[in-house]
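Section handout 9: paired folding examples.
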Amino acid sequence: MAKRLAALGYDVVALDVRVEPAAGVEAVVGDVRDAKLLQGIFQGADVVFHTASYGMSMREQLHTVIIHAVNVQGTDNVVAACIACGVPSLVYTSTYNTVFGGVEIVAGDESLPLFPLDAHCDAYSRTKALAEQAVLAADGARHVGKDGDPGRGRLHTTALRPAAIYGAGERRHLPRTVENARRGWYKCTFGKPSSLTDMVHVDNLVEAHVLAARSLAHANGGEAAGQAYFISDGSPINMFRFFEPLLVGLGFPTPHLRLPLLVVYCLAWLTELIWQVVHPVWDFEPLLVRAEVLKVGVTHYFSIDKARTELGYAPISTDLVQCGALEWFLERMPEERPRGRGGSVLFVLAALIGVFLVLHALLRA
């Protein structure tokens, strides 16, 4: 995002907990929980892109206190700083999870209500929904002038709801998938082969943010003011089929065993229970958590017609080979690639036995 904006000729300040040098970008180390820091760097800004979040996947999803502090309190800090500093536009990076919570959605659109907050199985989805509501509710808020007096301008806001993000250099979904394959853990798939979900290439997502900011720059915030948009490549696909070209290209075998979604969901639930008990002494990395199982195994994809019509969004179709992800990993993968270890088979067997015992106990209760 910062590189793209700098390339367009804008003066860019990037705030992150870890900053990588980039030409034309002023880097500031920090996070959105620091309200005073935000008010310092938002002075004179024309637009703020609020992309920060915590708890999207893996072990992070179980750290509920930090999730709330970053996603809810941090977003409140961002909104307050925009109002105090006279920032005209705020673009918020939301998520599909505000609407999706495990119930199948086919070609949904922005008219769908938010998923009930208390029905989410994870804190990330719940807090992102709260944050999106706060951002959109702030649309039209009057800036605060000196000494707390109302300012002359107003803040206009919009929220983008991206699908799962991929691309060369993406550091969450792709590296984890490849590392699991290297360890020999990619032994099976789950859910129906016909289940579909959306993906979004990072370049398409960045372009959507730029387009949203340009819309907000119009009088009264343009069409984007106070609106939410689903953002994807517009080509729903089965998640396992999506990753297959990358894994095959890296030399890993395609798994043929397919487990029922319920079995894997129960395994993830059991893993979360174990983590809750032992994490004070062993904060281990769960192989799966329930929200991820639902994201991968339950059909949910959305129309991007609203973004096309109102923002001028026109995604470029690509895949993991075309976008350079395969080449990126080939350059960085160790020469020796484990193809499957006995320990992974034992792990799967033990996990299935554990799920069986839990289900058996529940049925007898």
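Moving on to protein 2 of 2.
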Amino acid sequence: AKAMGLSPFRILLRHVLPNAVGPVIVVATIALGAFIVTEATLSYLGVGLPPSVISWGGDINTAQARLRSGSPVLFYPATALALTVLAFMLMGDALRDALDPGARGRPAWRA
């Protein structure tokens, strides 16, 4: 591109940016799932958000006391947390496949 006389801005816009945007978006979506788990873990341990703030970790901590009575209260926040994190991980994986410039024009089963 430089030999063709393109400006550095044009090279950045046409060659570097398309290859850099995909990985940044993918890492951001996967990191978002990790941030949610970290917040829930800290709240479960009691060092995260204050008890007055609604949090899945706080809900799991509260429901743990009712676990012996057979109440399924623990199931709901734990399932919501797991499904949310799984959704962010799958979204990151799908975005990685969609934004991969090397896979354009190839069928998904050949990638």
